[in-house]
Design goal:
Elements: E1 2-5, H1 15-26, H2 58-79, H3 81-102, H4 114-127, E2 132-136, E3 141-146, H5 147-167, H6 174-193, H7 196-207, E4 213-215, E5 222-224, E6 229-232, E7 239-243, E8 246-250
Antiparallel strand pairs: 1-2, 2-3, 4-5, 6-7, 7-8
Helix pairs in contact: 1-2, 2-3, 2-4, 3-4, 3-6, 4-5, 4-6, 5-6
């Protein structure tokens, strides 16, 4: 299952997201990645904070890079460059720590950025729940699905896969993905209470250089607004009503 973001307006250029994507691409050129893979039964070392910068194949890197480009850039927009950089490594370490706790005697090495991606998906889930997305399964796709629905299904799938592999005594990183996703949800809630989203909306409004503008509640696209009333976002196809009391979604 894949989830693709449809549209989301940004204030900051996602320089950290792009640099980290490029860094993980560069690590593909390293032949001996086993020395950077994290193995719970071995002594903790550089692999504990480096394994999530590596991927086992170009296909795996492409998948993680697409998710980082689509979702993490908007998280960086909300939290700022420095906080985003910290969160990238925080989620990576948390994913490895989860793998360690769930498979403490494992000699199976792991690498991959999926735990980091899951953490940012959890934050995106809270920050932009109404952004439209496309869910793609093996033979079918669903368009214009609110992100809170598509990512809810996504995390349920990850949880199911973990339970299946747990029952089969297979060691996987799905537990780390679930834990980082839920942690991202909690962190995002804390940041909202500290007005991070309010500051982003204020900055987005200032960048339009217009006195009369309303931001789409789904994707933050600036829309000219001469007066209160009904609005339609052409970028994400969201209908909403805006007056002195705020914004309200319309069918």
């Amino acid at each position: 299952m894949f989830v693709f973001e449809k549209a989301n307006h940004k204030y900051r250029f996602p320089i950290i997201s792009l640099c980290l994507i490029f860094l993980t691409l560069c690590t593909l050129s390293i032949d001996q990645i086993d020395s950077y893979a994290f193995t719970p039964k071995k002594e903790f070392g550089i692999s504990f904070i480096a394994s999530f910068l590596f991927n086992t194949s170009f296909v795996e890197w492409t998948t993680n890079a697409i998710y980082l480009y689509m979702f993490a850039d908007n998280v960086e927009d909300v939290v700022g460059h420095f906080n985003f950089f910290f969160l990238f490594f925080f989620f990576g370490v948390l994913a490895n720590l989860t793998y360690f706790l769930f498979h403490i005697n494992s000699i199976t090495p792991v690498v991959g950025t999926s735990g980091v991606v899951s953490g940012f998906l959890g934050m995106y889930f809270v920050f932009f729940p109404n952004v439209k997305s496309t869910m793609v399964f093996e033979k079918v796709a669903f368009r214009d699905v609110p992100i809170f629905i598509s990512l809810s299904i996504w995390i349920l799938v990850q949880t199911y896969l973990y339970l299946v592999e747990l029952h089969s005594n297979v060691q996987s990183t799905y537990a780390g993905q679930v834990v980082t996703f839920l942690t991202g949800v909690v962190i995002a809630q804390i940041l909202i209470k500290n007005h991070f989203l309010d500051r982003l909306e204020h900055n987005l409004r200032l960048t339009t250089f217009q006195n009369k503008v309303v931001l789409c509640p789904s994707c933050n696209q600036p829309i000219p607004a001469e007066k209160y009333g009904r609005f339609h976002c052409t970028k994400c196809q969201t209908n909403f009503f805006f007056d002195r009391k705020g914004k309200k979604f319309l069918p």
